């Protein structure tokens, strides 16, 4: 089966600093894939490259079997994205925002309106339909962003910290929806600093540090009866560090 994502020698320089440094990564189709690393490891830069937001300095990328370099517009119609930072249209209402996104993906006006209504109900955002997105809480914006990523039924989702700022009930709802998408054959590519969430959701995990892949494998391979995913993560990105005691603290 064609991988959902394949990168070969992927590299991104900012001046002389390599944010991504020779990344070779294969994400099988139909899996829930966790992409982990410490702050500044290159996770968000990698996602920005994969969605065609920034060009790589070197290397090749294939998304759903298509070369990113020559098929970026076609690829964008096949993927759903939830970025780390909110990039929603604040002066629109929830229904207006989702309908606009649907129309941008080429849905007929009536189809976009119906799917927007259904998604707002699914994500429990339909109680105040005239409320502007600017008035949404951070958790509500995350749910709206995921709803927008779903409206065109993409084959691949790229999610950068999708649960940040979401309350437990909202996070549980989002997780259930995403797991349902995987069961239907979609692929989820997820970054998160909450390793317990990754451990519960993901089939496979890759960990990067300083822009380089340091370990990749199934969840069973990265944890054992003795080690959690957090233990593996800490070990491969720099080892255990003992907190120092302060005399005054």
Report on this model:
It is built from 9 helices and 10 strands. The N and C termini lie far apart (56 Å). The chain has helices spanning 43-50, 68-76, 94-104, 109-122, 138-150, 168-183, 195-201, 219-222, 229-236, and strands spanning 5-14, 17-27, 32-36, 58-63, 66-67, 79-82, 156-160, 187-191, 204-209, 212-218. 36% of the residues lie in helices and 24% in strands. Helix 6 (168-183) links the parallel strand 7 and strand 8. Strands 6-7-8-3-9-10 form a 6-stranded mixed β-sheet, sandwiched between helices. It has a single domain (5-235), classed as P-loop containing nucleotide triphosphate hydrolases (Rossmann fold). It is globular, with a radius of gyration of 19 Å. With 249 residues, it is of the alpha/beta class.
Please summarize what this structure is.
The protein is α/β, with parallel strands linked by helices.
Which word captures the global form?
A: globular
Strand content: 15-25%
From the helix content, strand content and strand pairing, which structural class follows?
A: alpha/beta
Count of helical segments? 9
CATH class: Alpha Beta
Would you count the extended β strands for me? 10
- Stretches with pLDDT under 50, minimum 5 residues: none
List its salient traits:
Rossmann fold; six-stranded mixed sheet; 36% helix
Which helices and strands, and how do they pair?
Elements: E1 5-14, E2 17-27, E3 32-36, H1 43-50, E4 58-63, E5 66-67, H2 68-76, E6 79-82, H3 94-104, H4 109-122, H5 138-150, E7 156-160, H6 168-183, E8 187-191, H7 195-201, E9 204-209, E10 212-218, H8 219-222, H9 229-236
